Amino acid sequence: MFRVRDLAAQTAFWCAALHYVVREPPGDDFVLLHSPEGRGPNVSLDASPSERVLPPRLHLDLYAQDQAAEVERLEALGARLVHWEGRPDDADYLIMEDPEGNRFCVIDAAEWSGWGRDGSP
């Protein structure tokens, strides 16, 4: 669950980022997102602002066959790259945050042999 300030904006961002849809009916202060194909975990958004903690206790890892294109797509949706001095030079991940600062990683799935084109095992 992500606690968010702007439920509508965060719903739009995460639906587009994950290619998910809202499970109907959405609530005034809570939305459950899910894959229309039934793949992957559900993601809950709760309109209950809270203090951001770094490092976050939980974050999503998004796997992409074309990491650069996925980062560009997510940036167009409002996400930002996070530069961290502790990231190894050969890391297969990039750290990003959504428009409200919730962090997630984009993993280069092309580095993982045996993974499907959509980044799934």
What features would you describe in this structure?
By secondary structure, the chain is of the alpha/beta class. It has two domains: 1-47, Signal recognition particle alu RNA binding heterodimer, srp9/1 (2-Layer Sandwich), CATH 3.30.720; 59-121, 2,3-Dihydroxybiphenyl 1,2-Dioxygenase, domain 1. It is 19% helix and 26% strand. It has helices at 7-18, 67-77; strands at 2-3, 21-22, 30-34, 43-46, 60-64, 80-82, 93-97, 103-108. It is globular. The mean pLDDT is 89.
List the helices and strands and how they pair.
Layout: E1 2-3, H1 7-18, E2 21-22, E3 30-34, E4 43-46, E5 60-64, H2 67-77, E6 80-82, E7 93-97, E8 103-108
Parallel strand pairs: 1-4, 5-8
Antiparallel strand pairs: 2-3, 3-4, 6-7, 7-8
Number of domains: 2
Summarize the biggest pleated sheet.
4 strands, mixed
What is the general shape? globular
In the CATH scheme, the class of the largest domain would be: Alpha Beta
Summarize model confidence as the mean pLDDT.
89
Strand percentage: 25-35%
CATH architecture assignment of the largest domain? Roll
- Total number of beta strands: 8
Distance between the terminal alpha carbons, to the nearest Å?
Answer: 24 Å
Sheet with most strands: strand arrangement: 1-4-3-2
CATH topology of the largest domain: 2,3-Dihydroxybiphenyl 1,2-Dioxygenase, domain 1
Order of helices and strands: EHEEEEHEEE
Give the helix tally: 2
Q: What structural class do you assign from the helix and strand content?
A: alpha/beta
Radius of gyration: 15 Å
Give the name of the CATH superfamily of the largest domain: 2,3-Dihydroxybiphenyl 1,2-Dioxygenase, domain 1
